[in-house]
Amino acid sequence: MRLAGYTESAQILAGVLMGVLLGLGAFTLWYARGTAYLSDDPAACLNCHVMREMYEAWSHGSHKAVATCNSCHTPHSFVGKWSVKFVNGFNHSVKFTLDNFNDPIRANAMNRRVAQDNCIRCHAGVVSEIHGTASGEIQSCLSCHARVGHL
Description:
Blueprint (H helix, E strand, L loop, with lengths): L7 H24 L20 H8 L9 H5 L4 H20 L11 H22 L11 H4 L6
């Protein structure tokens, strides 16, 4: 395939650069065990050492019997789940590659909102009976239950 307006050597250079980038991307995905994040297996979180404490806490907690990481940390719609996994995967890979992350790791506003929605989805009856407010607003579950699921 010839691109109009570009010399043959420029096209070859562009092809080589594209090949190198795709090759590096595939190698990085393989080396970082990136395909593990496509599963619902909580052990995939252990690929990052900063998640070991969270994984250990979950594995000894009450949520282990009923929930995986994705149950609480991703939306339950197909598009929502994969969008959040993509955004988080990209952000995590950049932060870990550049060694620019909080230890212990902290949820951002989007991830707190996802967790809140999932708390309410599973515990709607309890939330409405116990935690309703006079104004009808529901308090953030994480304001009192931040360590639930991770002891």
